[in-house]
Amino acid sequence: QVQLVESGGGLVQAGGSLRLSCTASGRIFSVNAMGWYRQAPGNQRELVAFRTSGGSTNYADSVKGRFTISRDNAKNTVNLQMNSLKPEDTAVYYCNANLWTGATERKDYWGQGTQVTVSS
Known about the structure:
The protein is mainly beta and 120 residues long. The protein is 0% helix and 62% strand.
């Protein structure tokens, strides 16, 4: 079993910063990618940022230039530095890891989510 534990969410004023962290533990045979999604009330879950083991990254247009994703492969940890936060960034942020769990099995794992609230 794999567990993803997130931390760093909270309440911040507009223009402030937060740093989210996610650490994966358990039977991790191979990590293809790790990243972050978010879901605001009434909206669908959307990609925020994703980073592959090869180092390529993908950001939502709405966060480019403000958010930075990084990984510590040795610790199976992914971080999201969020700067210049806006009220529109308010959402539950979910960590995601795409893993090989067996010789022919690949699967997505999700964290429980951490709330980020940005006040005006």
